[in-house]
Amino acid sequence: TMKGLLVLTVLFVAVFGKETFEGDQVLRITVRDEVQLTLLKDLSEMEYLQLDVWMETTDLSPSVDIRVPFTSLQTVKAFLETEDIEYFIMIKDLQVMLDEEKEQMLSAARATAPRTSDDYDYSNYHTIADIYAFQDMLVAENPNLVSKIVIGQSYQGRPLNVLKFSTGGTNKPGIWLDTGIHSREWVTQASGTWFAKKIVTDYGRDAALTAILDKMDIFLEIVTNPDGYFYTHTSNRMWRKTRKPNPGSSCIGTDPNRNWDAGFGGPGASDSPCSETYRGPKAHSESEVKSIVDFVKSHGNLQAFVSIHSYSQMLLYPYGYTRTPCKDQSELHNLARKAITYLGSLYGTSYRYGSIINTIYQASGGTIDWTYNQGIKYSYTFELRDTGRYGFILPANQILPTAKETWLALMAIMEHTKDNTN
Amino acid sequence: MTTGVLNPSHYPARRAATVVQHYLNTRYGSPYRWIFLSKVHSGSAEDMAEMRKYQLELTMQEMISNVSGQCSAELLFPGGEGQSAPQVQASCEGLLQSNPTAQEEAFYQQHRASNNMVSGSNIPDSYGHMEPSMKPFWHLGGVASSCIMLRESNESTLYNMAQVANFTQLETEKDQLRFNYHVLLHEMISQEIIHWKLLVTWSPEQGVKVLQTELQPKCHDCEAPPNTTN
């Protein structure tokens, strides 16, 4: 009935043309006797005060609820206090409450399943089911540009989905992007979803992206570690690794970014299954990793490979397993500088850049060390927002700014790749 | 170990600078004052007998007022086998300009009476969200965590507080607000999430003090994680 009263009030006021309830309060007044009741009735009939009685006294309740417009508050409260009539403030600012309720209703509406990729809420975190449904929607809406390739299965049997963005042709050079290889890095899967939509939106509208897609294909794996991602929703928000059990140990999972065959077994990863950086029993032991390895090898013509993580705000190039500079260090360093300059141009977000081993730590068995050694020159890892204040649990209202600024850096990398590919 | 002039973009300077951040929070932090590293301008490291000494020029930012300030800091990381905390000296210009006294006092008065003990959990929640009334407790958790993070830091660690798992207010004692906190720390190099239980006190005069700390096991039936090979 409270809601009913609210609706009635809003309608009543809409009729009288009042636009806002800013500063209005709802007072609950408790009358002690007939005298007080009469006084209150007289007060409510004073038209210039514009009092709005929400709930009258009844035999069962001695309280009266009255909405008092902001401009009448002082007068009314002074009156009540002078007459020693008890009251308390039930609603401190009616407009604030209405705004909050509206927001709640909108977000509840957002929670119902979107029918098109235009309805999808990119400014929120989603379950794996939502993201997989989004992928199918995007393919259905853009059959001439987008297709879905299932490159393998996770340990628990979830499909490993890759969206292929292509304007046709055979074995065109390709660019690979992945997000979510570490499941707790939620801003990355959310950004990957936005990137997918961005690509279909910009093809044919943005000259730079159109030129890239006319020459090259883009492959995007949004949920690179689906078992881990599911686990972060259902059990442990801080889960990083895969969910494959380790024989002889009660600890589960391998770090998919220490499982690649690049410096495997060397310092910069752990040999303990209980560790967050456990390299796994052998290189490519995890199907989530092996599936990408097989894809890369069979494609044979990938020119760029970007693996996206959070947090720390860094753009990194090989190597992580050795201090020996990679042979393209100079070009990769300059391109990284350019990319993070573009990134920073949008909201002033500052990124550091450099090789993995210099900038963050020694890490062996890493993704881009392997891809670089396969001959994919433009191999980069991002660490997205923030720098530690929220860390992995970045507020949803930062998803869009993060995705948008990161896209500028990705465009710089993809354009440079296109311009340096035959 | 890197010695001499440090590249401000590389990790040795960055890790040392983060230790300075933890020190500043331990010293100056409150439910309305939480400091984060903004930028490393320059740094150097040298070997001394049994120690490693760092000098750094930094910009730090106070998160609630958004005020930034320049800081000069000197750190000593003890060498040898013992696990003792780094020693930090820092002087900052302009950083503590914000005056949260009014808010701190109001918060203190609001919570010192014993008739309504506050508690909370998952701050922020999985989506990065928290109720506005929980924010000062988040800040307080971050500052209390800084005490542990400072103590636990060395040249091979980089700590941040990942989340306040829960906190419960206890009876005010000796004019100090008191809380049990369960915090999750993220250590970047090992990538581990480390659980600590803390007994925390605070008042505007005394600042944040951590009276007791208790490391929580990673999981019941797991072996303790060994050190990551470096």
From TrEMBL, chain A:
The name this protein goes by in its record: Carboxypeptidase A1
Enzyme class label: hydrolase
Catalyzed reaction equations: Release of a C-terminal amino acid, but little or no action with -Asp, -Glu, -Arg, -Lys or -Pro
Family membership: Belongs to the peptidase M14 family.
GO biological process, one term: proteolysis
This protein's GO CC annotations: extracellular space
Originating species: Hucho hucho
InterPro entries, sorted: CARBOXYPEPT_ZN_1, CARBOXYPEPT_ZN_2, CPA_M14_CPD, M14A-like_propep, M14A_act_pep, Peptidase_M14
TrEMBL record, chain B:
Any one of the GO CC terms: extracellular space
Domain Cystatin LXN-type intervals: 2-101, 119-224
Keywords tagged on the record: Protease inhibitor, Repeat
Top-level taxonomic group: Eukaryota
Signal peptide location: none
GO molecular-function terms, A-Z: metalloendopeptidase inhibitor activity
Gene3D superfamilies assigned to the protein according to its UniProt record, in alphabetical order: 3.10.450.10
UniProt family annotation: Belongs to the protease inhibitor I47 (latexin) family.
Entry-linked PANTHER family: LATEXIN (PTHR28591)
Listed name of the protein: Latexin
Lineage, uppermost ranks: Eukaryota, Metazoa, Chordata, Craniata, Vertebrata
